[in-house]
Amino acid sequence: MGKATDRWSQWVPKRLLGHCRQSQHSTTFDNWALLASIVATCRLNDVNPVAYLAETLDGIINGHPQTQIEELMPWRFRKTSSPNP
Description:
Layout: H1 2-8, H2 14-22, H3 26-44, H4 49-61
Helix pairs in contact: 2-3
């Protein structure tokens, strides 16, 4: 885990990283790493991670076309500081 985990430590709560390091199952670590990656990408793009995940999952559930997956990326999501359209 070393360098990759340390790189995310500035974006992810220490409690979460500790859980990942202690996990006996690689699937658990993979899931937490995926979530940490999404949260970090949102923060780097000035996007509220909770709002992003909620709206993205809602879009997927409501049948967002797979051919337009690029529209669901965090860097395409409206900024937290931007007014709602």
